[in-house]
Amino acid sequence: MLSLNIQLTPSVAEMEERYEAEYRLREDLFNRYDGSVPNKHGQGLELIPIMTIDHIRTLKDDKGTMTMSVTFVFTWMDERMMWNATQYTGIRRLSFNRFEYGLLWVPVINLADIPSHGKPQDVFGNHDLDITINDNGIVRATIKALVTVPCYFTFGDWPNDYQNCSLTLMTPYFADEFRFAKWGAAESARFLQERATDVEDFELIGVESTSYFLYLGMDVVYDFKELV
């Protein structure tokens, strides 16, 4: 028995019906949307952050910097963005670019300690930004960026020396209102090891991430429970 699945091009009428349903869905979602931080039963919002290093472009030991292409993926829940797909011709997902998401709340996430920048850079200010919203209220933002981060170079153990480059993501929110989930991570793309060795003979040997809170803007606290 041979079974073939052939995807047919939707008719003009079907495309018009979907367009009208999507337009109506967007109107319904944002009709009473206030743009505030999503807050589930007063527990505060937990956002899952993932950063993937796509390619190391340059390493400048004389300036103590590394420039790399990265992809940020931020995922969070916004119950105000939930809908019944059967009421909108089966639409289960909406997509937005940085010019379209309008009133949708997105977090302020700054890149701190960036050389040659006097103030932190907002990650969501990048042009290469795509946002998808699912009918269950899950929002996912994908951002591609080129960032230059500070590095601490020491060559005393050359050629087996170890260099450390750091990147800090900071938010202006209070910990009971917004925080990064502990199961977020930073990782390298599968093909990075081969590509990184082409950059001035440096090799990426690992990526680590740590979450912390600033108590009263000074003391570093690693567990949110210590603040409550």
TrEMBL record:
Gene Ontology terms: cellular component: membrane
Superkingdom of origin organism: Eukaryota
Domain Neurotransmitter-gated ion-channel ligand-binding: 23-207
GO molecular function: extracellular ligand-gated monoatomic ion channel activity; transmembrane signaling receptor activity
Name the record gives this protein: Neur_chan_LBD domain-containing protein
